[in-house]
Amino acid sequence: MTLVDALSASAGFLWKNPATLVRAARDLVGLRISIPIAGLRWLAEHAVPVRLFPVGLTVDAAPPCVRLGAEVDAMGTRLRASLSVGVDQVEIRADAVRFALRFAEIELELASESTSPLAVLVRSGALDLSRPGDLIAALPGRPSFLAESRGDRVVIDLLRMPGLEANPATRIVAALLSSLISIEAIETDETNLYIDFGRGGAPARGSGDAATS
Questions:
Q1: In the beta sheet, which residues pair with residue 34?
Q2: pTM value?
Q3: CA angle (53, 24, 104) in 5-degree steps
Q4: In the chain, where the domains are located
Q5: How confident is the model over 60-113, as pLDDT tens digits?
Q6: Distance (Å, whole) CA 166 – CA 168
Q7: Strand 192-198 to strand 96-110: parallel, antiparallel, or no bridges (unpaired)?
Q8: Residue 36: is the preceding peptide bond cis (ω within 30°)?
Q9: Which residues pair with 186 in a beta bridge?
Q10: DSSP string covering 121-154, please?
Q11: 129-186 per-position pLDDT tens digit
């Protein structure tokens, strides 16, 4: 999904749900952004399919986390995957913009018949899905933006992503943001995703601990 696709889908949702703008403006005064889960679901349903974009993406609330589902191709095996994602910590610095994520309640099922080794493992239930960070760390060719992967916790650094890591402007922007705001928490209730901001300062607390409870 391109930026234009996302903006078009967002405009369509706001047109059908004008009260969302009023609530968002009220929350913003209190240094909080509220994003309706229904809006995220709308984006997922109206996304234009492109290469590498998950097929059949679903978004649901699983307070204080988000429940995601998608059909993915892993090592030549078509899988339907679902999991709860919580944000454990957000750290914005001049040299790093890190999101620490915790994964829980991971479920995998075969989306099509396969005799691959991975399909055999999924069918047998032998995969330990309680520590996805360990599985990701063991994969060959791990991406450069993966800063840490252990247990149920994965840390990604946006400044290490291709196209951003060699761009000095991104570090200037990160330094400016780190001096102005901090992200105190990212969590959900039954209807909204909330991003709570502070002024400058410490890494965020988040919903990740709840994801493992």
A1: 194
A2: 0.75
A3: 45
A4: 1-53, 54-211
A5: 999 999 999 999 888 788 999 999 999 999 999 989 999 999 999 999 999 888
A6: 6
A7: unpaired
A8: no
A9: 195
A10: HHHHT-S-TT-HHHHHHHSSS--TTEEEEETTEE
A11: 999 999 889 887 888 999 999 999 999 999 999 888 888 899 899 999 898 888 999 9
